[in-house]
Amino acid sequence: MRTRSNSGVRLDYYQRVVHKLILDHQQPVTGLFPASPDNDHAWIRDNLYCILAVWGLSMAFKKIADQDEDRAKTYELEQSCVKLMRGLLMAMMQQKQKVEKFKSTQNPLDSLHAKYSSATGRTVVKDDEWGHLQIDAISLYLLILAQMTASGLQIVFVLDEVAFIQNLVFYIESAYCTPDYGIWERGDKTNHGLPELNASSIGMAKAALEAMNELDLFGARGGPSSVIHVLADEAQKCQAVLQSMLPRESNSKELDSGILSIISYPAFAVDDPQLIASTREAIIAKLQGKYGCKRFLRDGHKTPREDPNRLYYEPWELRMFEKIECEWPLFFCYLILDYCFQGDKKNVVDYMGRLEQIMLRKDDGIKLVPELYAVPADKADLEQQKPGSQERIPLGRCPFIWAQSLYILGKLLQEGFLAVGELDPLNRRLCSEKKPDVVVQIVILAEDADIRDKLLEHELHVQTIAEVAPVEVQPARVLSHLYTYLGRNKKLGLSGRKSRDVGILSTSKLYSLNDRIFAFTPQNFDYEEYYMSRDPALLASTFTANVAFLGMSWRHMLGRPTITLLATQYLLDHGKIPMALITTMKKLKSGYINGTRVTLGNLGDFLNTSAITDLSFLGSQEDGYPDKLNPQVQSYLEQHLLKSFSNKVSVLSHRGGAPARGLRRRMSVRGAIKKTRSINVDLANFASHKRQHLLKSFSNKVSVLSPRGGARGLRRRMSVRGAIKKTRSINVDSTKSLCCRTAAPARGLRRRMSVRGAIKKTRSINVDSETLGMEGEYVGPQLERKPSWLDAPRADPDDARKPINRGTSTTNLGVAPNPTIKVTEDSKDKSPTPPGEKGLINKNLPPVRTRTTSESQASLYAAQELDELLAMLRETESLDEQGDILQHLVDTHGLDLNTGMTENGKIVSVKDLLKALYEKACSQKLWGLVRHTAGMLGKRVEDLAKAVTDLLVRQKQITVGMPPNNEHTITAPLPENELRHLIHLAYGDDESTAMLTQELLVHLAMFIRTEPRLFLEMLRLRVGLIIQVMATELSRTLSCDGEEASEHLLNLSPFEMKNLLYHILSGKEFAINSGRGNFSIVSNKSNRYGKKSQIILDGQSLQGNIDDAPISEPDRQGQWLRRRRLDGALNRVPRDFYSRVWAVLESCQGLVIQGKILQPNLTQEMTSGELKFALAVETVLNSIPQPEYRQLVVEALMVLTLVVEHKVVNSLGGLMQVEELVHTANQIFLDDQMKCNGDATLCCAKPAPDTTTLLCGGAAGVCQHLYDSAPSGSYGTMTYLARATARLLQPDRPVECTVT
């Protein structure tokens, strides 16, 4: 008998344990493990964890295999692993049609089953009888397959299986936006079968995608055909969403011990060491007990109060399970492995001791890990009163093989039989280690020699496309198409990759195909896709963001990233390369840009250092010619070789001078686009003492064209001019703006009024001071009711007396904005006038908002002859007029109208003319016209669906459309076409604002990816409201009326639009510089106000800055009112607001806000950190129409939270009327104002009986001076709210308090 070393003897012991507890139960035919002797169902997840101990033991034996017997044991153990992995593979391959279908539908009923028969490998329950969609289980299979293959096991045998595995990669790659049933198979914790986005599923998918990338499934015996390909961007999306969710597991589970599997072994999915530590600490603090960890808070599974006769729970039942949730020893096993991988021996010993204390010993001495420990039914009440005080009893399966397997792995690691690297041959454990800075390689190519020479003038030496041969440069859409061939298999009926999205990580590699090398330009630089790529400043900004993104996200890839940029004719501005691009390119030469290391060079210089991927899957493997290019691919590449983006000759090009008759026609259609708009900025109390100075700077010169055609010409002018303007719904009501204008003849006024605004009438941006006005300075009485954008337009008999104001236009042919009325303020008015506001009041009438304003106008439109309109179109040089005419033609005849023109032998339709106009407007940077024509052509942002998904998966809801009546909420990802349809449905005919909404969604998604802090404590993004805030802030900053502000907003370049949005979201001050008719939004750091309290977030004070001449605010009057209105409009709340409101609900019978009750039973259904609870609170708060009043209600709730947290009273009592607190605080404030003769005595602070009405018009009956008070200080809102709370809770005791 041979002698055996101590280690050999110990391993023999573990081999007996593994054989007895695990391998004895493995099915000899399929290799699967049944759940128990009585249940032959084999779960994918449980089977995979079961086999890990077998795999670990095989590697331990391999290290000491000095005898034939040991080598035999090693081989037997390894083949047991292979048998199980192939058994699961065969079971899933029998459902190959589901994999194919799920790639398109993402429907839970089309998902692979989560469990199979261990005897046959076939399904055991129907599609709708179980929560089968468990992305973490499929991801875990791919991860373990990758690790085992890397360790030397061969599990996949043929290329058909490789194709199936490749399609499993496609199956999980959208995990970041696919709700599933999760690791516990129940979805929402009420177990009603509602799938959720689960952090544990996303993390496991991310790990699997990274592990499978570039993996040869045939191991050392493989070749190019057996390699799995993963687009790195898909894993990165999972990473971003995962980081935004942790430590939360899902909407209904604020924390889950299952997350241990992704922050440590086996997934190692999180790269941030701090996030890993904080998540682990949260689990230990909230879920760990003496017998293990709870799965999640209020988990009713196997508790004594669970009804065993039904699977689901009623929402109100969940509170019964609090503090008596079962504890699972399984999670001690995860923690032991976690500390083993960290090398923390002290904690390994600690947790191993805890685990072995609660393990059960069999008769033969083997220790078993039970499934869970539950509180006995008779001790549940005692346990709830004092958690951790009662002894628990083991329930469920024993041994629980999932946990037993991990325990054996932990023992093998602790005793030194395994090294951590052997369990993780792919080195995933190192992903959180600090890595050297990434160097981003940048190649700039010129489309032709002309562009190259222009760059050379700026000392930028670049090559042309022709000069970089043999490297071929293609746009990203070509790479996207090539990847659709990946994973195709006719025999299995698999069609390959469905998604057409390729991100910056994928296009930053080089690709080899036989003897060819390809470089691809980034997807967001595909010039043909969308107008935002025509803005050089935005391109430069996007480029620097891409470089920074690559610097942060380039992981797990050999070689450096290489960005290939193509300088084309599209970039030229009046024949010159824009300075924004030149400046950015010159920065690259320094070696750093925004903190990221870069190197600028030629493609040939970077071939040896770049990441290169082999596109070998494009061969004809199924036809037996793997080295021969697929004929379809060959044909596609020949057809799509990159062509020059040369400008096409437009049918709209001017052909000779226009006679007087053409001039008359131009007059008749002018303004058609403008009438489509409906942005309504109502600045009723807006103090415009800057008006006279600003008007001179901002009003573009109007080209006054006298009519020459008698009555007939006048009728035509009246009939068509303004067709585009009438489509807009941006309504700016400035009935009380203070400025005066010069008079104009009545006849000209009538003519201009009658024909203006056809495009403008489609607009729907509504900024009304009654809900969003930013003024706050005027405290006198209301002069008259302010018109609302919802009001029907009324004919004014005094039209003839109204002077014409000078407006802005996108071209030299100015379109005059709405006329104004001069009103002299009555000197006998008893109310005081604010300083600097005496004199004339300028009243801008609301523009007409409907497309058809009257029957007479409709008949005039109809009377206009088609041939004359087309003749006008050919003769006019003004793009505005071309837009007006085309808008009218689309309205009356549709996009497919045959114009009778031909170009290159083809008939030209109105749509063709619109395309030509769009191209011209893009080249001339007329952004208002660009947005409108893009909307008419049905264009959409290429990344629209991705942008919306990026926002949604980070737990932000989105609404589009203008409040209060047209808002549509988006709560789940939608396809591109559905999104575009929904957005255009929300805005009706307002193409300009619909396109602006798409634009803003892309910017918001970019900000949430790069600066998520901007969105802290914002649950719902109301895009329509954000547009209104932007328009109003422009109006205030420029001291212009709302119509001009709306024009300025819609004519901002995409880059300036992004800048303005950033300043609105961040609360930074901004100023406006004007030059050559263009605006630029710049940060104004000098006068930024600091944060005043923890209750209200940073606001901003705005400055107008025209031609670098700053005009500062005379004082800070209105600052806090504006700040509250902005925060209310953006739905911002203080940190931890919702969880603190939860505590308030615990102390009362409900909170009443705006007639709606937040019921205390919400605390029975949801925990304080649940996202579902936050959404319930937000829904009630959003019923308050006035944003500043909403913010005061939020402050009142914060005062109540302080009362509860400091235990001022034992209970808040019955129903708390939160609004009553606000109004009581307002009354105390007014009483104080009368005592100290404060500012409010000029309006609301009057002795009885004069207090029946508020003279300042404050929202919801609260004085504007209270809205304009800082939160802190003796006269702060928090002080008054605290006094009101004290008066409400203890009416008999006088209270004096100050919040500092």
UniProtKB/TrEMBL annotation:
Pfam families named in the record: Glyco_hydro_15 (PF00723), KPBB_C (PF19292)
Key words, A-Z: Calmodulin-binding, Carbohydrate metabolism, Cell membrane, Glycogen metabolism, Lipoprotein, Membrane, Phosphoprotein, Prenylation
GO cellular component, one term: phosphorylase kinase complex
Biased composition (Basic and acidic residues): 783-802
Molecular-function GO term, any one: calmodulin binding
Gene Ontology BP term (one): glycogen metabolic process
Chain residue ranges for the region called Disordered: 777-848
Bilayer disposition of the protein: Lipid-anchor
Keyword Phosphoprotein applies: yes
Domain Phosphorylase b kinase regulatory subunit alpha/beta C-terminal: from-to ranges: 1038-1207
Localization: Cell membrane
Ranges of residues in domain GH15-like: 8-1024
Principal place of residence: membrane
Pathway assigned in UniProt: Glycan biosynthesis; glycogen metabolism
Domain of life: Eukaryota
InterPro entries: 6-hairpin_glycosidase_sf, 6hp_glycosidase-like_sf, GH15-like, KPBA/B_C, PHK_A/B_su
Family: Belongs to the phosphorylase b kinase regulatory chain family.
Function: Phosphorylase b kinase catalyzes the phosphorylation of serine in certain substrates, including troponin I. The alpha chain may bind calmodulin.
Matching PANTHER family: PHOSPHORYLASE B KINASE REGULATORY SUBUNIT, PHOSPHORYLASE B KINASE REGULATORY SUBUNIT ALPHA-RELATED
Protein name: Phosphorylase b kinase regulatory subunit
Protein's organism: Plutella xylostella
